[in-house]
Design a protein that fits this description.
Elements lengths: L1 H9 L7 H25 L6 H22 L10 E4 L2 E4 L2 H20 L7 H25 L9 H15 L16 H26 L9 H25 L10 H10 L5 H7 L1 H14 L6 H27 L6 H30 L8
Antiparallel strand pairs: 1-2
Helix pairs in contact: 1-2, 2-11, 2-12, 3-4, 3-8, 3-10, 3-11, 4-7, 4-8, 5-6, 5-7, 5-12, 6-12, 6-13, 12-13
Length: 368
């Protein structure tokens, strides 16, 4: 394991290798920590949650689109083309574009939970745990459909169990009032939209990965480019429509009212918030590439993705304590970290088995 870690930190890695997997984890971790610090720096001392969502979103989505346009990742390496409304396009567009629309739902709903008069703690636990469960269900569905031909190892299933416990630790300290979001229509709507959008998106990413003909490049960059461009255009359309909506006179603190206010009266730190959104945009690259990592099941990739974000969240909290005067992590967060470490042990065992399997089947190369 130490040899793999050293290689990941110091050498160029092969596609589908454990070293490449670790490199993506390190990248995701680093940018997620910066994102966590940015949120704690700006909210609520320098601007409201909604204002930060708007202005940081400008930065995060713009950086993704600029990168894929400059690098021309949008030139997707397709298996075949189709005719749609007289236009010839890669067949993969038919499901990558819906994935992009789902991405446009996932990005804002995560932050919108903070704007509601409910316990965000419990809601965020459900969000994280749901992604892990959905990843496991996607594997089951695609095995039944004959799309996935790999077995989900028992070690991966054990990692799921410990990951869910790790994500759920805050619930043990929750009180009855923390679960009031169940009776809040706006909260339930946002949470439902998040879960459905993420479920569809994870299914599509794994459909793309698992249906590539043998020997065909798995062009994750192309998938990411089309998805992010779609998400950007969808978000712009929705933002314009929301801006044209009439204010909510019955609820002055409604999302639409706060949205209008931050546009008409930008906070003084609006430019800083745009810059603060860049790490979130950068993290998106690593997050998607982890979900779509070559040769791995959705179960494995989903757990790796969520555990990396959980560890990054704890690291960001500690850095905020030291440099921003934030509150100390709760005991439940340290216990959660212990469960994360156990899950990582099972993931390491699963990765060793999967790597040996992929090398034997010549899906990945030992050296490149």
């Amino acid at each position: 394991m130490l040899k793999v870690l050293k290689s990941a930190l110091t050498e160029k890695s092969c596609e589908g290798s454990s070293e490449r997997l670790l490199q993506l984890c390190f990248g995701y971790f680093g940018f997620y920590v910066l994102n966590g610090l940015a949120v704690k720096f700006f909210v609520p001392s320098r601007m409201t949650d909604v204002a930060y969502l708007v202005y940081s979103g400008m930065g995060s989505m713009t950086i993704c689109v600029l990168v894929v346009l400059v690098l021309k990742w949008y030139k997707l390496k397709s298996t075949h083309n189709v005719q749609v409304l007289g236009m010839t396009m890669p067949a993969e567009y038919l499901y990558i574009i819906p994935s992009g629309i789902c991405t446009a739902v996932v990005i804002p709903t995560t932050t919108m939970m903070y704007t509601l008069p409910i316990s965000v703690m419990v809601a965020m636990v459900i969000m994280r745990a749901t992604v892990i469960v959905v990843s496991r269900l996607v594997d089951s569905v695609q095995v039944a459909q004959g799309i996935l031909h790999k077995k989900v190892y028992w070690e991966e299933n054990m990692a799921v169990v410990f990951a869910i416990v790790a994500a759920s630790m805050n619930i043990f300290g929750a009180q009855g009032k923390d679960f009031d979001f169940i009776h809040n229509k706006a909260a339930v709507t946002i949470l439902t939209a998040y879960v459905i959008a993420y479920a569809i998106r994870i299914y599509i990413m794994n459909y793309y990965k698992n249906t590539r003909p043998k020997g065909t490049p798995q062009h994750n960059e192309g998938f990411f480019a089309v998805e992010q461009i779609t998400a950007f255009l969808t978000t712009v359309i929705v933002a314009v429509l929301a801006f044209k909506m009439l204010p909510d006179t019955l609820n002055p603190k409604s999302f639409i009212n706060q949205y209008h206010d931050c546009i008409y009266n930008p906070p003084s730190a609006w430019l800083g918030a745009i810059v603060g959104g860049l790490p979130y945009g950068a993290a998106a690259f690593f997050s998607v590439f982890l979900f779509m990592f070559k040769g791995r099941t959705a179960t494995f990739a989903g757990v790796v993705n969520r555990l990396t974000s959980l560890i990054a969240g704890t690291a960001a909290t500690m850095l905020a304590v030291w440099f921003l005067g934030a509150k100390q992590p709760k005991n439940s967060e340290w216990v959660s970290l212990a469960f994360i470490l156990v899950a990582i042990v099972f993931l390491t065992r699963a990765e060793k088995r999967r790597t040996a399997e992929l090398l034997a089947e010549k899906e990945i190369e030992k050296a490149c």
